[in-house]
Amino acid sequence: MIAATAWRARTPPDAEQLADSLGSLACKAEGAPHVARAILQRLGNPRGTLSPLIAELAARIAGADCAGAHGLSDDERRHLARIAAGRD
Q1: What is the pLDDT of residue 88?
Q2: DSSP state letters, 15-71
Q3: Within a domain: residue 62?
Q4: What does the alpha-carbon distance between residue 41 and residue 36 come to, in Å, rounded to a whole number?
Q5: Which of 33, 42, 72, 84 lies at a C-alpha separation of 20 to 30 Å from 9?
Q6: Tally of structural domains, the chain
Q7: What pLDDT sits at residue 62?
Q8: Is 58 within 8 Å of 76 (Cβ atoms)?
Q9: Which residues form the domain of 78?
Q10: Is 20 buried (19+), middle (13-18) or exposed (0-12) by CB count in 10 A?
Q11: CA-CA distance, 53 to 56, in Å (whole number)?
């Protein structure tokens, strides 16, 4: 029961810290492109903690510096571009 109480009492993550952490995970070469793909699949939820930062996170993953995105399909890259532009 103590664990449940501690879980409920925890402070939710700061959206900017969460977006930064997810961007770092997505852009690591290890696990490419699977981690980036998994994060991309979850960016479509506009109601979550990340909603104001989704476009920025998508742009980071779509960027040339994101080694973890190498290997994403053309469709996935187009989806990232639409999210980054605020159109998806």
Answers
A1: 66
A2: HHHHHHHHHHHHT-STTTTHHHHHHHHHTT-TTSTTGGGHHHHHHHHHSTT-GGGTT
A3: yes
A4: 9
A5: 42
A6: 1
A7: 95
A8: no
A9: 19-84
A10: middle
A11: 5
User: Largest alpha-carbon pair distance within the chain?
Assistant: 48
23 in Cβ contact with 67 (< 8 Å): no
Q: Assess if residue 7 is contained within a domain.
A: no
Taking only the tens place, the pLDDT of each residue in 24-76 is 999 999 999 999 999 999 887 666 778 889 999 999 999 999 999 999 999 99
pTM: 0.81
Task: Give domain status of residue 10, yes or no.
Answer: no
Cβ–Cβ < 8 Å for 41, 26: no
Please count the CA atoms within 13 angstroms of the CA of 51 that sit on its side-chain side.
5
Q: For the beta carbon of residue 49, count every other beta carbon within 10 angstroms.
A: 13
Residue 4 in any domain: the answer is: no
Which residue from 24, 13, 23, 78 is spatially nearest to 54, judged by alpha carbons? 23
